[in-house]
Specification:
The structure is a homotetramer of 243-residue chains.
Chain A: E1 3-7, H1 11-14, H2 16-21, H3 26-33, H4 35-38, E2 43-47, H5 57-61, E3 65-69, H6 79-91, E4 94-98, H7 105-111, E5 118-129, E6 143-153, E7 163-170, E8 174-184, E9 187-192, H8 205-218, H9 236-241
Parallel strand pairs in A: 1-2, 1-3, 3-4, 4-9
Antiparallel strand pairs in A: 5-6, 5-7, 7-8, 8-9
């Protein structure tokens, strides 16, 4: 399984705390804890300031699961790159959208809604698993303490998830649907709320476990190449005539 | 629309605070605020200690929506009555299960799961609406303060709801899927978490509004009388031959 | 309830059979059988070749439910009009997409998928109701004969419907998910497959019944005006301090 | 992964064609093609006429995925065995219900509906995949020819599936939701329609592939042992006090 971790990579350039928490940037740390999932296959990273955002057609064509972290520069991702990612999801590529990626062009494009939510600065977060039978929840307890995290709150304007796996509680008085899946085309999408750039959530072992599980779940099971109008099913008469 | 409010009615006999909050019992108060929904039709109440639990075949056959509140005596509802209610849901009757009714025989029968949850005594509850486009949410704000209520917490062992409409936040550190719908047979079911017998939730105008909306939503749109193996669809050849 | 029926209106100009079947155009006939739903409110029609496609901001702002029929000229609908409709769905407006509208810009925009399907020319269609408890199925039998209709077949590349209400059988060997709902933002969407321009489906009483039901179901229950980042929920401390 | 294939095993005793098609019985053939899935673990079979239906507590406790084929003797399965299977599903065991098992006690118990459907004798069946991104569809084409099979038709009285993966077309004029999943407790359930005892569907390579996939999908990801009221989540105050 080939995994590509995309990170906007801008906060790393201006906020020292980000690279203190995440040496080499968020993408480097995420790629690092995903090594056990790739099992010898490619784990690559890509960032906004690379040519073509690091997401050339070749890179995407050889990516099974793409992770996406973005925040302050969603608008700087060219529409052409967004369509390239969109097409790959239609073809079967898995997509895992992290934290503030909820307002990325690609997530909004796939959801068909505004994807807006309420938020406030750091409070304290606890996560609950509401679908323990789901592969993304494998080995995850029914609830666990995440600790300090940016607060996201409902109403989160997303399509009703195909599966709601995690909900979150915040000390300041909010709930949030924090782990959600959708099927789109031949691809699968997982949105996961933790991961503000100045908080240590990506160093939390249960968060790492969940993202590892999500990569395995999101890997393609079938792929589609052709997007022209699909060939008609032969009629029964045609089938019988051909025998 | 004929509505029947079923209440176990036992706490009312031993805890003075219940009838102080709810004169005449929970069923009387609930029936009272549902009058605008019935619009001249029957609103009846029924309790555990009446003959046949107040749910004779005649009563059920003329009920469009049944509300269910039970807590300490779930096991005393005879299986025969449970099957009678179950059959009516299959036929199209709406069912609204309130608060501790989550462990009632009829709810577990319709869900096919244990319906267990975590709980603790009163803390403070705030509700969020996560599906504002649903008719049960009509006129309900995106969030509102419920106040003191018994704490229910995940993991709530229910089938994934067809629609998750409300989630709740509790001061002591819990979230809960507090307003959920399911389709079963020709009937519709709404589970709604507020309503501990010693708390004033049923006097809260937004809670009343939600339960009123739920009755309108749960009313039958089609009904089924026959439970034997349904007649086969005529084959096209039969249809053509008959013309 | 104000209803607007949008029709591309091009086939009417070149294929005599269309206006023979549907005098005044598809929009005129659809608007006509929706009169009982509007109950004295506005029923308007709009077509592609009117200024702004007939969908001025004023028209959309006063529309509760929009119906959409398009086929050969999806690309001629300006993106600006598509965004206008999209914004209205986010705000709460209901949208009913008919037949070949599955490839309209607005439907693809709201689904986040290609919305492609298999098709062949006219065969014979029979519809089945798989969710008889849904308000859109009110008064609709468990199966009924539609007759000659253009054949649509799976795989239909849509997000898993929130509710699958109708499935269809075609004589030539195909099945199709022919009646589907989704929630998007504050709005509700119903896709319904029958209605090729040279077939009489919109004159079929059960099809008319279903579209009438769908209008009632899709009407807004709540509306949203503001799309900036929503105001944060007050923290409990703030609430307590304010009392 | 330990797999147990349960088969009623009665038709095999009276209809020669069954054992001609399926030497050793349906259970033997199904167990045979599941060997690649178990990868060295136990594959066992169990039938109605064995003591305790072959489903002793020990057998069930060591079963990860149970397959169920029954038809003429659903009522002869003792309620005690049904509850034993039910409890194991709540604990996490996967359950795959085949063909006429739709009326088995255990399936109805888990669904909470009548699970009735329309049917007629053999016609010709074609299957469509409507969720190609699902692991149960891995390697399965968008449509394939099943051939002669007993006809099942809507309305199939089941809860709306969590995932609808396959739909079927029958020559005589019917559609059917033929591959459906549900989550119940910690367990996962797959219903799959093909497999009448006198038809060769279980010898069809794509059918075998789907059932193999379903076993992998249904295997437990987490398990639950305790069914008493779960321990409360510690409050934040308790957590902070303990540090």
């Amino acid at each position: 399984m080939n995994i590509t971790v995309w990170n906007e990579g801008r906060h790393e350039k201006s906020i020292p705390r980000v690279t203190q928490l995440y040496p080499g940037g968020l993408h480097a740390v995420i790629a690092s804890f995903l090594k056990p999932v790739a099992e010898g296959s490619l784990i690559r990273t890509a960032t906004l300031d690379e040519p073509e955002c690091g997401l050339t057609q070749d890179v995407l064509d050889s990516t099974d699961v793409l992770l996406w972290w973005g925040h302050m520069a969603h608008d700087e991702v060219p529409d052409e790159i967004v369509e390239r990612v969109y097409t790959r999801v239609m073809q079967g590529m898995g997509l895992i959208v992290l934290h503030s990626g909820h307002l990325s062009k690609i997530f909004c494009r796939l959801m068909g809604t505004t994807c807006r939510l309420r938020w406030r600065d750091d409070t304290y977060e606890r996560m609950f698993c509401v679908m323990p039978s789901h592969p993304i929840a494998q080995g995850v307890p029914e609830h666990f303490e995440l600790g300090v995290e940016e607060t996201y709150a409902e109403f989160f304007d997303i399509p009703q998830p195909d599966e709601l796996i995690f909900t979150s509680w915040f000390d300041s008085g909010e709930t949030f649907r924090s782990g959600c899946t959708w099927h789109r085309g031949y691809g699968k999408i997982f949105y996961f709320q933790p991961g503000h750039e100045t908080n240590p959530s990506f160093n939390h072992p249960t968060i790492q476990k969940i993202i590892q599980n999500a990569c395995r779940w999101a890997a393609p099971v079938n792929t589609r190449q052709d997007f022209s109008c699909p060939q008609m099913v032969p009629s029964l008469e045609e089938i019988r005539a051909s025998k």
